[in-house]
Amino acid sequence: MEGVDERVLRYVEEHLKGEKVSGLDHSLRVLRWCERLAEGRDVDLEALRLAALLHDVSIPKSGRLRHYDVSADMAVELLRELGYDEVKIRAVEHCIRAHSRYGGPDPQTAEAEILYDADFLDYLGAIGLLRGILRALVEGEYSGDVSEAPMVLEAIIAKYRRPLYTEEARRIAEGRLRFLESFLKRLREELEFKA
Fold this sequence. Notes:
Layout: H1 6-15, H2 24-38, H3 45-54, H4 59-62, H5 67-81, H6 86-97, H7 110-121, H8 125-138, H9 149-159, H10 167-191
Helix pairs in contact: 2-3, 2-7, 3-6, 3-7, 5-6, 6-7, 7-10, 8-9, 9-10
């Protein structure tokens, strides 16, 4: 992959092996969103790419609870071992600590804002719908009974009615939220034998 440290990519691939919802595929989609949202902006693209790859690296070990802190600590350790300078390491660390909707500090840099928005976008729309249902199944929050699915979808939609930092992410999120709301409406109609 162009612009990506292959050593970091291998590290992420190894640590996310077996992760069912926030695996390497998610990190690579977030990386692509980061690159897209960064276009035309004055950002440290190298720090942003590193943060995108490493932002969820601890989830198989730590779960979602405070994964942003554990992943940031793992990233700092790895980047020091690989010889990155402290300024770059601190930039990556802040991005990772600030990327989560589940806690952590607010983003204080353009790179951290972009990572937050990119991660957010991967939980919306068709991909987000699948990821939300899979996460609820994996974590035991959803039994798999289709009649309970509207409650799962309502929770997903409610969680994602938060402000985003970049104009492009806001535009994309609106379309994806409309899709989720439309899907939820159709699901309810089908469950009530109206469609």
